[in-house]
Amino acid sequence: MAHLDTAKRHFDEDMTRSRALIDHGNAQQPSALQSDIFRAGWMMAVGASDAYFSDAYGDLLSRTLRAKDVQRAVVIPDRLNNLRVPVITVLHGTHDGWRWRMAARELMSQENVLALDKIRGLFNQFFEDGNKLLNKDTIGPLILHKDAKVRIFGVSATDYRRIAVPADQERTRKEATASMFDRYEVIFQRRHDCIHNCDRPKYVLQDLTFDQAGKAHQDISFLIERCHEALKVEFPKYLERVGFNAATRQRVLQ
């Protein structure tokens, strides 16, 4: 299925560039310049995640609108049905997938997705109740994933598996969700600090090491990989739940 493929390909390319910067910085002598190279790699990695979520939302939105165009009788959820689509998209016809995508990107330009609660707010409309993205009810498989890190969730896969009491499992998932939000808030905020105050949030330059930059890069990759996997699986189900038939789904997912 082609949906989301472009967004993911661009993310992978940008993360390769980010990793190259971080590795290049590590080859330099310790200095202010070395730290700035690490900062550039960090900012590019966060920028890659920002671009992925913007492109992914635009992709899913445009495909849903195109499906609605094919099957006009299908009632799509109010949140999408009430979108203010640019008039140029309507005037130039609705069968142009590129035009729908550009309309979706224009809508996305007003969104700031650099927060996990914003990401959930944008994408959970495509997920079935009980299977929402990035919450305590679905975080268990993320904790158990082979690439998961304790610094993200505050608990290891081994320790999580040992928890036998359901109430303790529930509490751990809640705490792990809070830990995940805290970790990504730190990562996203650091990019903001670098851009807006040259990494001096309190007038003192923050330290940044190769290890810190590498771990941030690793954690951003983990986030996007898991979200991408979930979106690839859930979006076709969403189209089916809304009421689009198999022919329409196949047409817009290509």
Description:
The protein has about 250 residues and is an all-alpha fold. The protein has one domain (about 5-254). It is about 70% helix and about 0% strand. The protein contains twelve helices and no strands. The longest helix is centred in the N-terminal third of the chain and has 39 residues, at about 30-70. About 30% of the residues are buried. The mean pLDDT is about 90.
Number of domains: 1
Mean pLDDT: 89
Helices and strands, in N-to-C order?
A: HHHHHHHHHHHH
Task: Indicate the structural class.
Answer: mainly alpha
Enumerate how many helices there are, as a single number: 12
Biggest β-sheet strands, sense, barrel: none
In short:
The chain has 254 residues and is mainly α. It contains 12 helices and no strands.
Topology (elements, then pairings):
Elements (H helix, E strand, L loop, with lengths): L4 H22 L5 H39 L7 H4 L5 H5 L5 H12 L7 H8 L16 H5 L5 H4 L3 H6 L3 H32 L12 H33 L3 H8 L1
Task: Identify the notable features of this structure and list them briefly.
mainly alpha; 254 residues; 12 helices
